[in-house]
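Work through what follows:
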Amino acid sequence: MKKEIFHKLVRFILLTVGAVITVNGIGISFVSGALLGIICTLIAGISLFLIGIFYKFIRFHVHWIFKVVFGLLVALVGSVIIFVYSYGFNDTVTYREDAVIVLGAGLRGESLSIILRNRLDEAIEYYNENPEAYIVVSGGQGPDEDISEAEAMERYLYEQGVPLSKIIKEGKSTSTEENFRFSKAILDERLENGYSVGFITDDFHIYRAGKTAERVGFQNATHTHSNGVITTFLPNGFREFCAVMHMWVFQ
């Protein structure tokens, strides 16, 4: 009897969690451009919901090897997502860096996305602690953007009281690697050898961004994170899982 109650509870949890994740994916699709993360969220939610519906059949008719493989996959995805978020919460900036790079995150026309605004607010907090540092705003112009991300970022920082003399624009990059590579080229010309640099991005993105910074030549780059929107936790987590796995396997 207790065993049957347990299985009914498991089925209820699968149905509930699957439905919640699916609704989350559908909702985020209207406000976010993170297509890969949204697709992965929908796949995860629908899969759990279907497992809940066919739980009895799966319990008695699916070979245990497939169940183990599925469980290991869920454990892998969950572990990587937890790792990247946990890593990102641990800020390492000293507030003595010569420059801090703010990674771009998309615009709507000329308006900042919530994610990008959060990153810039973190940059302002950093500047208040270390007004001697340069703030490099890095991001090019996407197909649905009216201006470059760097231009919009500079405007926002200036409106919030950061002097233009302390803002460096890098407005050509279209990826995280280009963010760092192009920013490094500018800083190498402007600062003396041995300068120190930090960067700002979302918590889930810190780990991969740090590895990218190392790859393009920024040794010992520090970092500080901006907090993401709670409703994007799973889409961003799934997208970052795919990106991190690609990095570990191919780079």
